[in-house]
């Protein structure tokens, strides 16, 4: 099985993510960003997070051309480029780097995950801050264990099947979309995406190997909530 690029999903991403708690991510970012004059958003998607942040220099990257096209229309103030987080070469550093909504879980292997951390370190200014979040072990084992989800709007219906991958704590997301073209005619689209997460202890080890100082780690959008076994999302705030 091979992972797809975000093509059809990019077109309907904002419609289907109407309940994404962007405000919770923004609260965390704004609490730690200080007076950062430059921000890099990795896996920027359609630009919903970056457009709400204030800074003199704002750059968003994503490996999906379709996502970047939408982000440029959605947020003409920021700059957006098609870049892969594993291999990005931007020839500049940033005071704040963000990777929200489990972006790092799209790194296709442990080696790639570690490479992203090292790449971020190299693009971070001295004293800069890096914020990212990942799916937890609990979520992978319970919410993504052959679960089937679906949602719809007036013009879109989709199903989302989760299938555990061969690697530990990995999952294949099999997405099927039915999008209304005209009248009552719908066209079918399919995409497959891969994610992998790691135990908290493994992530701490990779963070340390990349050279970061760990400022905070917590679960489920609550900075005062220490990492727990039963949680959906773990957050890491790192400094250089």
TrEMBL record:
A molecular function (GO) held by this record is: methyltransferase activity
Q: Which UniProt keyword terms apply here?
A: Methyltransferase, Transferase
Q: Which domain of life is it from?
A: Bacteria
Per UniProt, residues of the Methyltransferase domain are: 39-128
Q: Which GO terms describe its biological process?
A: methylation
One Pfam family named in its UniProt record: Methyltransf_25
Write down the SUPFAM superfamilies for this protein, in alphabetical order: S-adenosyl-L-methionine-dependent methyltransferases
Note the PANTHER family from the entry. TRANS-ACONITATE 2-METHYLTRANSFERASE-RELATED
Q: What is this protein called?
A: Class I SAM-dependent methyltransferase
């Amino acid at each position: 099985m091979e992972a797809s690029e975000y093509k059809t999903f990019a077109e309907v991403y904002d419609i289907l993510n109407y309940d994404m708690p962007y405000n919770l991510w923004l609260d965390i970012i704004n609490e730690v960003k200080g007076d950062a004059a430059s921000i890099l958003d990795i896996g920027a998607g359609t630009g919903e997070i970056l457009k709400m942040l204030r800074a003199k220099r704002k750059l968003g990257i994503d490996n999906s051309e379709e996502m970047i096209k939408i982000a440029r229309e959605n947020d003409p103030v920021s700059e957006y480029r098609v870049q892969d987080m594993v291999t990005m070469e931007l020839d500049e550093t940033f005071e704040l780097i963000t990777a929200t909504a489990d972006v790092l879980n799209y790194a296709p292997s442990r080696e790639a995950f570690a490479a992203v951390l090292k790449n971020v370190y190299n693009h971070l200014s001295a004293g800069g801050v890096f914020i990212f979040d990942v799916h937890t072990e609990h979520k992978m084992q319970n919410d993504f264990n052959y679960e089937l989800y679906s949602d719809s709007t007036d013009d879109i219906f989709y199903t989302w099947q989760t299938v555990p991958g061969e690697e530990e704590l990995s999952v294949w997301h099999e997405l099927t979309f039915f999008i209304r073209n005209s009248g009552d005619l719908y066209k079918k689209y399919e995409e497959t995406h891969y994610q992998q997460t790691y135990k908290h202890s493994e992530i701490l080890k990779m963070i340390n190997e990349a050279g970061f100082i760990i400022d905070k780690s917590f679960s489920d959008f609550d900075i005062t909530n220490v990492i727990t076994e039963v949680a959906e999302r773990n957050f890491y705030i790192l400094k250089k």
